[in-house]
Design brief:
Number of domains: 2
Number of strands: 7
Structural class: alpha+beta
Strand order of the largest sheet: 1-4-3-5-6
Helix content: 40-55%
Radius of gyration: 24 Å
Distance between the termini: 77 Å
Number of helices: 7
């Protein structure tokens, strides 16, 4: 009887049931590999389109499981209390040549540097308990230390309509001044 009920359900409902009842999951990928393989086996009986979707999902899940260790490598970023211009210059040469990406937490007074993306640094700080509204992305140009060009207020994480910041920059002069003060307190010659 349950089998006939299963046949009367839509393909989407069957896909959801198969996903939810897929059994033990691959621990490294949150179960996506195992689920996708099980669904592709069940989907073959439903329709060619459903099978194709499930098969593609299983292939993607396989690629994720194979590349999982690569994507989980430790990021080079670091939270700093004090850092020298020389250290920033070395970081810049290793990553982009002339700049170091950084994110500041104005409420907690934190500075994280040396990641490929501001969003990586933002994620790190959020995991440490920071609030997103206090985080601002900047670029530091070590060769410009001591000038206005040392700090560039430009990051995708700065776009926040709810805080009236509609651009990648930091539009509020008071926030920019706080960022400058925090960075100057953390960087030495």
């Amino acid at each position: 009887m349950a089998n006939s009920h299963f046949r009367s359900q839509s393909y989407l409902e069957k896909f959801q049931i198969a996903t939810l009842t897929s059994g033990q999951a691959d621990k490294r990928t949150g179960g996506q590999v195992d689920i996708a393989h099980r669904v592709s086996r069940h989907a073959k009986a439903w329709s060619p389109l459903c099978y194709d979707i499930a098969y593609r999902a299983s292939r993607i899940a396989h690629l994720v499981s194979v590349s999982f260790p690569y994507f989980c490598k430790k990021l080079p970023m670091q939270e700093v209390d004090k850092i020298s211009v020389r250290e920033l210059t070395d970081m810049a040469e290793k990553m982009y040549g002339n700049l170091v990406k950084a994110v500041v937490d104005l409420k907690l007074g934190l500075l994280v540097v040396d990641a490929e993306l501001h969003s990586d640094e933002e994620y790190y700080l959020l995991e440490q308990g920071s609030e997103q509204g206090n985080l601002w992305g900047i670029n530091l140009y070590p060769q410009e230390y001591g000038t206005e060009k040392f700090i560039e207020f430009d990051s995708m994480i700065n776009i926040r309509p709810r805080q009236q910041n509609m651009t990648r920059g930091v539009e509020d002069k008071e926030i920019r001044e706080k960022i400058i003060s925090l960075v100057q307190g953390k960087i030495s010659e």
